[in-house]
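User: Predict the structure for this protein chain, please.
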Amino acid sequence: NSDLVCLQSHIYFRAIVEQLTGPPANKLQSYELTEEQWLLAGAVEEVLLLFQNLTDLFSQAEVPLIVEALPMLEVLEVALEGAREDADAPNVVCVAAQAALLLLDKYSVFTNECELYQIAIGKL
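Assistant: Here is the predicted structure, written as structure tokens:
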């Protein structure tokens, strides 16, 4: 979640960031974001928010039960599919959502092959 928190802070403090990076006297103009980059930052933030609940769950000292984790992964999958198909989203966000879906599918294969997982979540 550190990337999300950093990005959210950058967006929240946009006016201040622009005041720091804009003036030539500060010699920070190479770090100044364009309007397109600010829009991209907002789109990336939306996709990173999809991972927040799962990251929080898996960051706890207690290990989550499979019956808690799998439904959340299914919700994440649907949300990532929506992000991938969003015609208004920047292409890089759609590609990143597809990459995340491929990784999610890679690990979902293991749960589909194990009857114990299927029984635990009530699919068998």
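Helices lie at 2-12, 14-21, 35-49, 52-58, 66-85, 91-113, 115-120.
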